[in-house]
Amino acid sequence: MKISRLTLALAVAIFACFFSYIAYAQLQPTGMKIVLDGDIINPATSGFIAESIRRAERANSRFIMIELDTPGGLLGSTRDIVKSIMSSKVPVITYVSPMGARAGSAGVFITLASHIAAMAPSTNIGAARPVSVGGGPTKPGIFDQISGKLEKGSRTPEEEKVISDSKAWAESIAGERGRNPQWAATAVTDSASVSADEAKSLGIIDLIADDEQGLLSKIHGMRVRLADGERTIDTSGIKILEVEKDFRTRVLSAVAHPNIAYVLLILGFYGLLFEFTNPGIGFPGIAGSVCLVLAFFGLQVLPTNYAGIALLALAVAMFIAEVKVVSYGLLTIGGLISFFFGSTILFTSPDDFMKVSMPIILSFTVATLLLAGFLTALVLRARGRRPVTGSEGMMGLVGEVTSWNAGSGKVLVRGEIWNARSADTLKRGDEIEVVIAEGMNLLVELKKDS
Question: 28-248, what's its fold?
Answer without folding.
Answer: 2-enoyl-CoA Hydratase; Chain A, domain 1 (3.90.226)
